[in-house]
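User: These chains co-purify. Model them together.
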Amino acid sequence: MAARAMWKGRIRFGDVDVPVKLYSAVQDQAVHFRLLDAKRKEPIKQQMVDPETGDVVEYASVRKAYETEDKELVILDPEELAELEPPESREIEVTRFVPLEAISHVWYDRPYYLGPDDNAAGYFALAKALRSQEREGVARWVMRKKEYVGSLRPEGDYLMLMTLRHAGEVVPASALKAPAGRELDEREVRMARQLVEAMSGEFDIAAYRDEYRERVLDLVQAKAAGKVIKFPKAEKKTEEKSLADVLERSLQVAKKEKKSA
Amino acid sequence: MPEAEGEESSAEGSTFWSGTISFGLVSVPVNLLAANRSQRTSLRMVTEEGTRLSRRYFTAADLKPLDSDQIVRGYELEKDQFVVVEDEELEKLAPERTRDIDLRVFVDTRELDPIYFERAYYLTPAGNSTKAYRLLARVMEETGKAGIATFVMRAKEYLIAIIAENGIIRAETLRFGEEVRTPEMVGLPEPTDVKPMDVKRLEKSIEKLAQKKFDPSELKDGSAERLMKLVEKKLGSGKDVVKAQDEDDEPSDVIDLMEMLQRSLAVRDSDGDEDSAPSRPAKKPGSSGRSSSKSTATKSKPAGARKSQLQAKSKAELYRQATELEIEGRSGMSKEQLIEAIQRSA
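Assistant: Joint model of the two components:
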């Protein structure tokens, strides 16, 4: 079944104007639990409470406050917060294009598909142009009163908008100092490289399933049916030896597995 | 008390897990820290007078307050029909995998489609040697490979890619295939023919805005900046500014992630002949109590935890610590019982 568009907008840069529809590219598969009253097995209610008096504070009189490092609270009125909201807009403004992969994965947040809205020819031409240029655009837009920064990138024949985390929300690897230590032993480096190569393969997303999720669902069904639940047993780990020995043995195992595969 | 849905994200920045990465028979002990920090500008809920509010749970029918030990986690089988599931049961479903990130295959990092990337964590060396860590980092970086593994943390299975950059290893959680839609599933139309002339024109427009590098300062948060301006204005005038009372439970999650990461990466080989740094530097005098209350200090050294120190913690913190230690029956324990159990298992 086709998904419903979440939002409509227009991609804008230079004299380019391509109308698009936006769709979520992810679907929630998580097992959701609810918090229950242990005695009555009924869902419970969550409320905000003044810890000093124990009184429940109704939603209408809950205020928001910014807490400073000196533990000062700056109370912000609903009107003041409303004034901070970005003006509504349908524009997905592309400010820049960079080579694909110039934006580190650590910034990636959520992927959305863009689909054509009216002008299909313009849409597919833009996807093709980005693909042939191997570039992605840095875009800004306002959706549901929130400001987003994202990457406009080609995904096959289509366009994708990947929301990015804001500056300051991620610690980039370049800001960190790598762990130090004695010079690595070249023989160990060589063996480790061989091991990584022996264990190399293609990335096949279909080979991975959330088995734990399936076990959780099985557990729930078993409990509901009043069955005895069998839990898997933990495996014992073997003790450690010197790194070179372990690499050596690992290599032998990896090579043998490769041969038999 | 079972953690509510979405609790994980509130612990952003302080997420802490220790275990091992293994490839072949080699194991690399590591700590895991979120690379994302919670937004500086997240707001607190307060009363009109500025008293910080707490979230409390009540029975739905008659609004009686519930303690954390009167709350369980339930799965809704049919409408209003629940199966109670204990934390311990969830844990037992994955006994062998909670402490081990077992790399099964190495793939070209470029083969990983960005659509799968979810969240980044840094892995920092644990234990008293960095050798295996540095070895893995160097080899992965030189070969351009990422290690793929699945593992279970906090009642959720993760598919992760282990990637090395600048000598530092990080884990990117990946979405499972079933979590990602294809263009067909979304119902995007079949591609239509495009005029080469149109593509040419678009390429020219793209080139005009092209740059070689990406500058993260472009990711500035306009809303947050406007909010901070308003906050500063109000602080200047003193309007609506109140001194926060001390909180006894639920200390806020403000920690300096950068400092924590740097400290965690600064582990040195203890068997080496280089300058011997202390395995864990003393707490900086400037760092406040709340910054260390539940991160490095508690998790890395539960063994030294004295009763008085434990007593000072909130029940939620103790519960988290009990989860780390995999203490059985913790969901039904009182604060006192949690303290005893933590002391026993430490």
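Chain A has five helices and eleven strands.
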